[in-house]
């Protein structure tokens, strides 16, 4: 979820506050301090939340609205959640997933004591409410998000399911690429393709320099969701080549598959979810958590580094 940056919610994973009823790096108020906020509604549907406007807290407060009947959530799990986030100063919803799709939340109490500290030991199917100052949610980025650090935010989240890694169904050998160099290729793959590891295949060998990790590279490419066979991105369609640096700033499998290849080459890469969009997926691109990716890339050039001052 860190990489997803889904609206406002994702930033909470970098926080230092602690939720739940136990004390941690931030003090926690008794659950009765949330008694003025009520949550109602059926599971799976956006809840009705009342009493949010004007609610204030200077501490992290969390409460179980309804207990689920599924597995207990443990540190290290990834949980699919739905949520609504409110600005208590206005009573208005800032973000909701109920009108889009649930998101995958890695549970890591070290990196995310605010959410993970509240969710660990809760049961799947449960619904929780968490309130804290915006500074606890966003740290120094609260004002960037248009909030005062002292504004109280109220999060209602539903623990839908635990993420289960998909079983591999094929390899790069199950992908066929056709089309002339320089034109958008046609990509076909077996239905519901999930791969276990990043693999690359040179479809046409170029005569240029060999790419290394950290290089900047200009490419044309098409990206396909291996589960659905649908194209989710294409520089050919936009008509403008893209420039990337082969480092951690791009999809891991994308960089891995290009390192060692020559400029002028066309390369096919298959990427497992763990080196792609992870269990979070990319809702904007309609990529679900766990989906494998397929890329076909024409390596156009390696731009020269700017001279040092």
Residue share in helices? under 10%
CATH topology of the largest domain: Chitinase A, domain 3
The largest pleated sheet is described as:
6 strands, antiparallel
Mean pLDDT: 86
Query: SSE order, as H and E?
Result: EEEEEEHEHEEEEEEHEHEE
In CATH, what is the class of the largest domain?
Answer: Alpha Beta
Strand percentage, roughly? 25-35%
Number of domains: 2
Structure write-up:
The structure is a single chain. The chain has 309 residues and is mostly beta strands. It folds into 2 domains: 9-162, Chitinase A, domain 3; 172-301, Chitinase A, domain 3, CATH 3.10.50.40. The chain contains 4 helices and 16 strands. Strands 3, 4, 5, 6, 7 and 8 form a 6-stranded antiparallel sheet that branches. Strands 11, 12, 13, 14, 15 and 16 form a 6-stranded antiparallel sheet that branches. Mean pLDDT is 86; it is low at 1-32.
Features:
mainly beta, 309 residues, six-stranded antiparallel sheet, 16 strands, single chain, disordered N terminus, 2 domains, Chitinase A, domain 3, 4 helices, elongated
SSE diagram, text form:
Blueprint: E1 38-40, E2 48-50, E3 61-66, E4 78-87, E5 92-96, E6 103-106, H1 113-119, E7 127-133, H2 134-138, E8 152-162, E9 175-178, E10 186-189, E11 199-204, E12 216-225, E13 231-234, H3 235-238, E14 242-245, H4 252-258, E15 266-271, E16 293-301
Antiparallel strand pairs: 1-2, 3-7, 4-5, 4-6, 4-8, 7-8, 9-10, 11-15, 12-13, 12-14, 12-16, 15-16
Give the gist of this structure.
By secondary structure, this protein is mainly beta. It contains 4 helices and 16 strands.
